[in-house]
Amino acid sequence: MLRGLIWGILPNLSRRTGPWYSLNPKAAKRERFLSAKLLMASSTFICDTQPWKDLKAHVEDIKKTHLRDLMNDHERCKSMMLEFDGLDLDYSRQCANEHTMEKLFTLAEAAHLKQKINSMFNGEHINSTEDRPVLHVALRASRDEVICTDGKNVVPEVWKVLDKIRDFSDRIRSGSWVGATGKTLKDVIAVGIGGSYLGPLFVHTALQTNPEAAQCAKGRQLRFLANVDPIDAAKSISGFNPETTLVVVVSKTFTTAETMLNARTLREWITAALGPQAVAKHMVAVSTNLLLVEKFGIDPNNAFAFWDWVGGRYSVCSAVGVLPLSLQYGFSVVEKFLKGANSIDRHFHSAPFEKNIPVLLGLLSVWNSTFLGYPARAILPYSQALEKFAPHIQQVSMESNGKGVSIDGVPLPFEAGEIDFGEPGTNGQHSFYQLIHQGRVVPCDFIGVVKSQQSVYLKGEIVSNHDELMSNFFAQPDALAYGKTPEQLRSEKVPEHLIPHKTFSGNRPSFCLLLPFLNAYNIGQLLAIYEHRIAVEGFIWGINSFDQWGVELGKSLASQVRKQLNASRTKGEAIEGFNFSTMALLTKYLEAKSP
Ligand code: F6P
């Protein structure tokens, strides 16, 4: 009741009053914090609402019908297929019927999903623990779109940076910007970790085999350096010449220990070969912290900004991804990627829930994990070019929704978040599919591509290589859904003692998402679908999907260990302040390894 009132009043209030609090910045901050908190807050948990309880009760109903029987209802299947902008989503292999869908839409209403989506697009400070808006959608807005936060349209700033990237990458690629010894910079190492790495790596891996993009990248190499393991640094420079290499240091905060050490390591590699003045020509940065960029020794003119309203894991469409990818493929290819993401943003913002791909995926994911009790999700692209998609989504999903408290900070009485993992098909089939067919139930996302990036048809084969791949894409969801009964096995004369081993229970849910092709545009679409799907889940669970306090504790403990290692090695100081186990391990490590 109270929440309904708040939802009803707040949008009107903010429209009518405008930013009155801008007169007093402190009051403004507090006001923003409170209003976002109120907007996102759940005065009761979503699990206390009637729609949640109805869904709980509905679980028993749906369990009575096997998926193979649900699949016999053609009208149902037809209603669970959706086409948008060249993409096809088939969710008929979900353990759900029309009643499930109705109840999920009612739950979405109870969770104020529509208002929360609008709050995100309206630039409200929905990341309340950091008092920030969440505006990655502005990164791919077209020039004429208006996306405001705190009374300011951010789209012109976004395009200012994009234009700077276009200009810089054109100069590097054309050879008008050269290195310290006058040579063209044909190789790029992007140094960054987590959100400053995984998204760009996924997109790069997907574009690498696209004929149009590959043509644009001819003669150039893009590598990533993420892990602080010295092996990764050695690999990143192996075969590269500092004279022809540009290093892009990518860090939102410019404080991340691993990235900064790797950046110093590559700075040393460059200056040892070319002298300290070479940094100006061979190192650039992407960050929100331009002061620290300058302190590091990178010319602020060679820094590409983004904003604190872009979460690290949502930053691939900022300079974090756009700069390295433009250097490799040219800005016009990357612009298509942004356009693909923008197409999904508009769809997500405006399509009715029954026809809204991220909303349907998000609601059914909540259904699978929270109500049916399947906590994991397998991401299975039948495309080798998408081999880095699951690692990227692992971060987006698990860092976003791996939370134990509600947005108000109250412990959740239910589990939020999902365990994401995946591998491209068919490789995964020879790895963990045994478990998903006969062991635990793991809802699967099958992602297929209609037209391959490569066309191979060997003489004498009955299908092309891509058809072979796709035969598996089409077969696996049905194998999971239908299973195989003992009766079927008996009719095949399978010996009785093997029947339990060869039986497949089936009734295992999956989505099929079919992309027409794998080009920059479709890759952008795919990215945005998953980003929004994950937001939908967080909105329903009533958590803050946009902070990540859970990564802090390990970082601060590592800093204590770092200090100890330094003190022991340089001053021979005894190990102290750790528990018995860590002390014993540290002693072994220090005894065995010379620095
Ligand atoms: O440790 C997790 C994290 O904070 C991520 O959220 C972020 O993407 C990553 O580290 C890198 O942070 P930065 O871009 O500030 O170096």
Automatic annotation (TrEMBL):
Xref: InterPro entries: G6P_Isomerase, G6P_Isomerase_C, Phosphoglucose_isomerase_CS, SIS_dom_sf, SIS_PGI_1, SIS_PGI_2
UniProt-recorded name of the protein: Glucose-6-phosphate isomerase
Subcellular location: Cytoplasm
Gene Ontology molecular function, alphabetical: carbohydrate derivative binding; glucose-6-phosphate isomerase activity; monosaccharide binding
Enzyme class: isomerase
Catalytic activity: alpha-D-glucose 6-phosphate = beta-D-fructose 6-phosphate
Oligomer and partners: Homodimer.
Pathway recorded for this protein: Carbohydrate degradation; glycolysis; D-glyceraldehyde 3-phosphate and glycerone phosphate from D-glucose: step 2/4
BP GO terms, sorted: gluconeogenesis; glucose 6-phosphate metabolic process; glycolytic process
Family: Belongs to the GPI family.
Keyword Isomerase in record: yes
Keyword Isomerase attributed: yes
GO cellular component term, pick one: cytosol
Provenance organism: Protea cynaroides
Family annotation (Gene3D superfamilies): 1.10.1390.10, Glucose-6-phosphate isomerase like protein, domain 1 (3.40.50.10490)
Main location: cytoplasm
